[in-house]
């Protein structure tokens, strides 16, 4: 299917952006309040007089007294200058002076008080401000005024300086301002500067000052999805120059700051040549787990999921989840393959499923109840309705389906899982009965060989891998409607064993492993369950409004996306739910153009430079 | 093209094995010699009497004297036993006793001599053997007899024991025998045992004794191509258990023994999970270069070539060089792609070039003067005659050609090179003139982008990468027949510079980088030249009998294979030459079914389990 696209802008297969925004983010506006004024009580006899303007008059009066050095009862000595002012005014305007004058301190009685920590000019500015509400903040004095205002607790002046600084932010001064905010724990200013640095990271990372950034700030900035980098290598090099700036002091901090560098997203060659060979990295054994995670990700792809495998917003790649084939209303079969990008809220159709573009609809292959999985960013699909042997893999870079070696045993309602960088095809239905056969694929030799068979023959079960073990959950066994058994395979012993059973017997279910739990959904369960391999225990995560038999579930953008399925009345469902494990919240993400069930759903990393012209007839027989 | 094959046995596209064996290995048989006897001199008067049997009679006589203790002039005291014998007999049979009795040593005069280092029973056996030529070697006494015979220099007895041991070799005793041979520096026995261990490695590596193997022997055994392992992982695990057996002593030897483990051939996942994570490996910084080589090989394939990237004989994979397309006699174009395996002396045709199987010959694409290179074991081909833009890649595991993104600038007589895990397309001819444009391919984004252009516009040049730099050699520049310029690109500076010029101006040439030199052949040079990037100097390697314009050259099995080309009379050549850098020898390897020139020639690692049924129509549009 020919897709045309402008350079740099993602266009949808068909316009959906509107529908995506629709029901989800209603903006609320607070009614704005006008400043108070003369308010009459209705019954006419009494008047609540609220003279908003009086405070200004009062203040002018105080200023005039100060100008005439009248009734002044304290002299603030700063450097060589002396400022006479009124204790009561200072106490009213500043908690610092309030504490000084109202508590039983010696200053309470002294006529002349020596003030440290501020220069005369800044004192002059602050006193003028106190008595006139006016002050001239300039690039030259803002830092001194802010520090003094913070010291004497002139909080409104502190905010004024902070917003002055926020406006004046530029690549050269932002780090300095950040340190200022840090030392005086001005949290809102700090947040503003941090998001400025995040947005303008590329211009800032080369500045000298950046190298003096405190470690926590650096750690926080590097964690952000919105960090404006097009290549993760820029992030790695920033961290390394930051450490190299003060090696003795900062080598021990390397694991902490490296934690937020998304090493798996680095170009594999760059990773080997620059990261692996970096002398500091080689001297620091604690970073080993981070290196191993990246090494395994380069070999296996999504089998390794962590906050470091999610592309950042401005990198030319995006984590997307796919809806592959399946069937829709009135049992029509779906040949389309759709990529959904929750971060950019876009939907894109890619190359149709193989053997689905014959003139005669009846000749088209029905990709239903097949199995699918991602290995090294390629989507493998196998088998399908009526005991198929076919195996194809989809390469999203070249947007093509490519056939690989047939399965030894044709099957459907089975599952595929990636474990230790190898694809496993597990169980399913061979047209006669449920089978326990398991096959693994060797990509170099392009051949399937048998692995240890299941303990219980099942079909329409859920399956996924988690920390070097493979889990097969529930499904329909021979001679029974459904089972609650959890079967677990350990490749190091090549043995299957039973783990804690599910809370319910269920089939037509799907599972994904995310962070340290396995999530299961579908069947007649009307709920999302989670299994903890560590504790070998199950728990209910959340109820669902409807049954979702044969729905899809895929981890993407640090959330779980549940797609389609069949409700209690066996109707196809078109909505996509989103479960946010951190916020523990279930939301309806969007509505698909049409309902779908018995489809495949996986996650891949998709290139986002632009859609180049892709010409049919692109692969030889 | 459907290829059928039995399980486990490679069958040729067409029977060729005969022709390969033909002209190359004539076996010679030495005439056998009969033992000497009575020889008459022709003229009848004198007879040269050579009584071969006399020595036996003499020996029996001496034995009888010994039995009767007659004329015995020395008593050898061994433990509590005494052996009286004749000095002259002992001296004649053993250099040890000759030295003892003939030199001015005290033993020369002593009647009774105490003999150390041998037990009575063994002495008895040796003396019987000396006087009767007979001895009974058994499993129980062979070690003691051999040690004594070696001590007393009964060399024929030593050999007899050695061959007894060689016959009796089994997985349990071979290591012991090897140590025996080692300590007594019995080189021939040592060699025999080493080759026994190499042939039966899998059974032996688990034996306890294996862990006591001396380091040099282990190092030697692991180096062998014939080491009987089907998976390189078996070699790695052997080395690690050998080191772990005496860690304190052997950790420092790890880099030395690991040197002969072919880490690049390990399954990439096994490499990350087991090798990278091994505690001893992580404690040993000196192995870093070996790890880096494997990491880069997993990313880039043949850009990294060393003794460790060549599969061993019994592993289910083989290094093969390919002959791709080109043209043959009377300008007919070749659509076939052939793999030649020098180790197994086999030739196999694989999937034909893309777009070459139309009914109408004229519609077929003419794959001539295109460029080709291997990246991550996939063969990339681009452009070709009449300014083509096509780019395809061949995956040998699934035996398919797959189209990828077009070149920005169509070209032919250009070259492709892999550098830093990236494919570069360089210069060439765009139908009008030679160009200096260089493009690089990003596999993830499937797009070509421009890189720094050549200094000199050239076509039909030679090009290769060597230790992180790219070299463009000779070729036809605009306005001149040929050039001798060597252009060098350094990606770290993104700059081209000129290096030492070739000894001759030449075009229609090809180059490969092998170990620390770049070899160039072809054009009208009638010779193979080599360039040393280290010394930036050229030298003549060897003359060739004919010109070989537009021939192919590929490194395989630690040798260089030069294929086809055009001779002085512009006739296509069918022979394949082999240059062995170690032996500095040029040999004619084999003759192809037909001559070929302007073809592509690269090296890949090919799976050797078996040819499974590969069905046409295997890739979706």
How would you describe the overall organization of this protein?
The structure is a homodimer of 621-residue chains. Chain A has 621 residues and is α+β, with helices and mostly antiparallel strands. Among the domains of chain A are: 51-149, Potassium Channel Kv1.1, Chain A (2-Layer Sandwich), CATH 3.30.710.10; 317-607, Neuraminidase, CATH 2.120.10. Chain A is 25% helix and 25% strand. Chain A is built from 17 helices and 31 strands. Chain A has a 4-stranded antiparallel sheet, with no helix packed on it. A 4-stranded antiparallel sheet of chain A has the order 9-10-11-12, with no helix packed on it. In chain A, strands 13-14-15-16 form a 4-stranded antiparallel sheet, with no helix packed on it. In chain A, helix 6 (142-151) runs antiparallel to helix 7, helix 7 packs parallel to helix 9 and helix 8 packs antiparallel against helix 9. The longest helix of chain A is centred in the N-terminal third of the chain and has 14 residues, at 54-67. Mean pLDDT of chain A is 88; it is low at 1-36 and 610-621. At the A-B interface, helix 15, helix 17 and strand 12 of A face helix 15, helix 17 and strand 12 of B. Chains A, B: Residues 174-276 form the BACK domain. Chains A, B: Kelch repeats lie at residues 320-367, 378-421, 422-468, 470-516, 517-558, 560-606.
């Amino acid at each position: 299917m020919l897709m045309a696209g402008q350079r740099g802008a993602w266009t949808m297969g068909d316009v959906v952006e509107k529908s995506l925004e629709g029901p989800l983010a209603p903006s609320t506006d607070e009614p704005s309040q006008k400043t108070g004024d003369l308010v009459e009580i209705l019954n006419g006899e009494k008047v609540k007089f609220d003279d908003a303007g009086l405070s200004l008059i009062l203040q002018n009066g105080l200023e005039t007294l100060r100008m005439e050095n009248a009734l002044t009862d304290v002299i603030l000595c700063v450097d060589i200058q002396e400022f006479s002012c009124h204790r009561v005014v200072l106490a009213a305007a500043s908690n610092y002076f309030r504490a000084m004058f109202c508590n039983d301190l010696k200053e309470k009685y002294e006529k002349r008080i020596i003030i440290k920590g501020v220069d005369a000019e800044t004192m002059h500015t602050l006193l003028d401000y106190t008595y006139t509400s006016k002050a001239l903040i300039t690039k030259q004095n803002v830092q001194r005024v802010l520090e003094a205002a913070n010291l004497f607790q002139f909080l409104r002046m502190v905010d004024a300086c902070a917003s002055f600084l926020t406006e004046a932010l530029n690549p050269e001064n932002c780090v300095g301002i950040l340190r200022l905010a840090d030392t005086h724990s001005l949290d809102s200013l700090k947040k503003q500067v941090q998001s400025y640095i995040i947005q303008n990271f590329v211009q800032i990372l080369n500045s000298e000052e950046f190298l003096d950034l405190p470690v926590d700030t650096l750690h926080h900035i590097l964690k952000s999805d919105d960090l404006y980098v097009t290549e993760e290598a820029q992030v790695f090099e920033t961290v390394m120059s930051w450490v190299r700036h003060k090696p003795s002091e900062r080598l021990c901090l390397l694991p902490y700051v490296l934690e937020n560098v998304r090493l798996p997203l680095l170009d594999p060659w760059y990773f080997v040549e620059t990261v692996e060979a970096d002398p500091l990295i080689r001297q620091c054994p604690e970073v080993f787990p981070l290196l191993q995670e990246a090494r395994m990700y380069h070999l296996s792809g999504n089998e390794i999921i962590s906050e470091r495998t999610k592309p950042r917003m401005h990198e030319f790649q995006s984590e997307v989840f796919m809806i592959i084939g399946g069937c829709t209303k009135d049992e029509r079969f779906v040949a389309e393959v759709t990529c959904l990008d929750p971060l950019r809220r876009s939907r894109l159709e890619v190359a149709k499923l193989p053997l689905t573009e014959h003139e005669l609809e009846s000749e088209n292959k029905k990709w239903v109840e097949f199995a699918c999985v991602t290995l090294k960013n390629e989507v493998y699909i196998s088998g399908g309705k009526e005991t198929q042997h076919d195996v194809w893999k989809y390469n999203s870079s070249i947007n093509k389906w490519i056939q690989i070696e047939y399965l030894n045993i044709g099957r459907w309602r089975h599952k595929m899982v990636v474990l230790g960088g190898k694809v496993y095809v597990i169980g399913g239905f061979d047209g006669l009965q449920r089978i326990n056969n398991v096959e693994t694929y060797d990509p170099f030799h392009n051949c399937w060989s048998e692995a240890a068979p299941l303990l219980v023959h099942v079909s329409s079960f859920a399956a996924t891998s988690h920390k070097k073990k493979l889990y097969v959950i529930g499904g329909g066994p021979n001679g029974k409607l459904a089972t609650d058994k959890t079967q677990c395979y350990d490749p190091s012993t090549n043995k299957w064993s039973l783990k804690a059973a599910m809370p319910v017997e269920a089939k037509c279910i799907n599972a994904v492993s995310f962070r340290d739990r396995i999530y299961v959904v579908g069947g007649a369960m009307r709920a999302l369950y989670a299994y903890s391999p560590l504790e070998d225990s199950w728990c209910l995560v959340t109820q669902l409004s409807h049954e979702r038999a044969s729905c899809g579930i895929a981890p993407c953008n640090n959330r779980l996306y549940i797609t389609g399925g069949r409700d209690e009345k066996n109707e196809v469902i078109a909505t996509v739910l989103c479960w946010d494990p951190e916020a523990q919240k279930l939301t309806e993400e969007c509505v698909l153009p049409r309902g779908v069930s018995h489809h495949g759903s996986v996650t891949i990393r998709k290139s986002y430079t632009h859609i180049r012209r892709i010409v049919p007839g692109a692969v030889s027989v």
